[in-house]
Specification:
Elements lengths: L6 E3 L5 E2 L1 H15 E7 L2 E6 L1 H6 L1 E4 L5 E2 L1 H16 L4 E4 L7 H5 L4 H20 L2 H4 L2
Parallel strand pairs: 1-5, 2-6, 5-7
Antiparallel strand pairs: 3-4
Length: about 140
């Protein structure tokens, strides 16, 4: 049985800043970028066949801090994917601890701070209408 699992990008991202976004996408570029050269002076990239057939999952579920510039960059990337016919899925920051975080040997205050940070980021993304921009 062949599963059509979307390409999973940004997993584990904690701070959505321009620098972090660029770093993690650079590390993951083989998952979603296919280089194409129509001519030597015009190096361009296209979405991989797997992205086109299975879609792309942008995982913001663990993000605890967001920069508006990085949110804008990500919005443009998602819009570009849609324009190229790539189905996109986006997970906003969760408002609950993951099972791994629940089992972790963190103090109660650390767990509480993680939750507060994610809730603030989730609210901020909705205030700047990120959720509407990516629909």
């Amino acid at each position: 049985m062949i599963e059509n699992i979307p390409v999973h990008l940004l997993k584990g991202l904690l701070n959505l800043t321009q620098e972090e976004l660029e770093n993690i996408l650079k590390k993951q570029e083989k998952l979603f970028i296919e280089q194409s050269t129509k001519n030597q002076s015009d190096l361009q990239w296209e979405w991989t066949d797997k992205c086109i057939s299975n879609g792309v999952f942008f995982d913001l579920s663990q993000v605890r801090w967001v920069n508006i510039g990085a949110a804008t960059q990500l919005t443009l990337l998602i819009e570009y994917a849609k324009k190229k016919g790539v189905e996109t899925f986006v997970a906003l920051p969760t408002k609950v601890l993951t099972s791994k975080e629940q089992k972790a040997d963190y103090s109660y205050s650390i767990k509480l701070n993680i939750l507060k940070a994610r809730k603030r980021v989730n609210s901020f993304l909705k205030v700047i209408q990120f959720d509407k921009a990516i629909k």
